[in-house]
Amino acid sequence: MSVAAHTDASQGSFQTAQVVAHILDAVNRAAFVDEPFWHLEMTEVFPAELYRRMRAAMPEASEYRALKGRYNGNIQADGSSTRIKIDLFPEYIRHLPPEKRAVWDLVGSALQAPELKEAFMRRLAPGLERRFGADFMKTDLYPVPMLTRDVTGYKIRPHTDTRWKGITVQFYLPEDESVSHIGTRFDRQKPDGSFEMVHRMPFSPNTGYAFAVGTDTWHSVDKLGPEVRSRDSILHTYFVDETVQHKLMNRGKRVGNFLKNEFRHAARLR
Length: 270
Hints:
- This protein is an alpha+beta fold.
- It has one domain (3-269): Jelly Rolls, CATH 2.60.120.
- 31% of the residues lie in helices and 25% in strands.
- It is built from seven helices and twelve strands.
- A hairpin with a 5-residue loop joins strand 8 and strand 9 (195-200).
- Helix 1 (16-28) crosses helix 4 and helix 1 packs parallel to helix 5 (114-123).
- The longest helix is centred in the C-terminal third of the chain and has 26 residues, at 244-269.
- The radius of gyration is 18 Å and the shape is globular.
- It starts with 15 loop residues before the first helix and ends with a helix.
């Protein structure tokens, strides 16, 4: 049996199909909220035992690489980054210890399942149809699951996400409810150009949200205070993959990030 299909057999195993089915159920029963824009709010996204293993398999900070953000907005004066990441593709996680690699390979494989993409597209139909038209289900999207960690000082102002993205999904991975106040804000732009928070997602274990990227999908994160040890989540983005330019960019970015990851790993071993 492949690493992608199970976790350590001594701890019991999960088939990829089982995990996909569980996430599909979470998507299909998710609450559909239309304020301030159409989005899904999910609970019990991953099987409870797998979620426990995900928490236990969290990589060390040194195993991530910096996610600089727009205009290097996440980079601190000392050169450190308030957001770090690991793409959940086999070539990125191959340097993790075997027990951690098995867990994240399983999760990454499940999140790339075509049936999961189709479920998100069906449930987010209003936003996707508005952007791509009546045949939105035929739109090609390229899934990129990414494990992220935010630390004290991280923030992001209200934004709608780049047009290169079709669907934005985030799964929250906290240990408990102790920092539930640091969830993503869903904002509305007022006539004067300022923003008001309409709703905040609680940063609760094994929950998440999803929305079709549009011109009104304003969201943000307040600056994380010193009480935040880490804000762990999976950012799962479906990039538009319609044209030759899209396909070259999406795959080229994956190759480029792989090379950066290999250089970083080699430097650590010197």
